[in-house]
Every structure is written in structure tokens, then in C-alpha cells.
Design a protein that fits this description.
Length: about 80
């Protein structure tokens, strides 16, 4: 196995897949709103929601570390 390989618990991989799907849907919603000429305020709200989804997806690293026990007091 390569030294830089990343092994995810199944639950973390499924969570990441779900979050990526949410991100794609959010981006598609923004594209559709722009194409439809929606109100800029509505588009801004969709953008804020997309950023929130992206930030939540970035937290996968902490969840993977938690699942592996990284950061526990017993780590040496």
C-alpha cells in the first residue's frame, strides 16, 4: 500500500459521497437560478448555503481522525 494512501471507514466514505452530492446539487441550483434570472439576493442566499455545505464537507478530516482515534490522550 502506498505510504500516502488514505483509508476511510465505510461510514466516512459514504458521508463524503453524500456531501459531494449535496455540493453538486447546490451548484446546479445556483446555475439554474442565474440562468433563470432570479433575484440577486436569492442567488446570494444559495451561494451562502453552498459555502456552508462546503465547510461541512471539509470537516470530514476531523471525523476520520476521530474514527481512527487520532488525537486521543493515549496516542504516542
Amino acid at each position: 500500500m502506498p505510504a500516502d494512501a488514505l483509508i476511510l471507514p465505510r461510514s466516512a466514505a459514504e458521508d463524503l459521497t453524500d456531501r459531494l452530492f449535496e455540493l453538486r446539487c447546490g451548484a446546479e441550483d445556483i446555475a439554474a437560478a442565474v440562468e433563470a434570472g432570479e433575484d440577486p439576493g436569492d442567488i446570494s442566499e444559495l451561494c451562502r448555503e453552498l459555502v456552508a455545505l462546503a465547510r461541512a464537507a471539509e470537516k470530514i478530516r476531523g471525523r476520520v481522525d476521530d474514527a481512527r482515534g487520532v488525537g486521543d490522550a493515549g496516542d504516542t
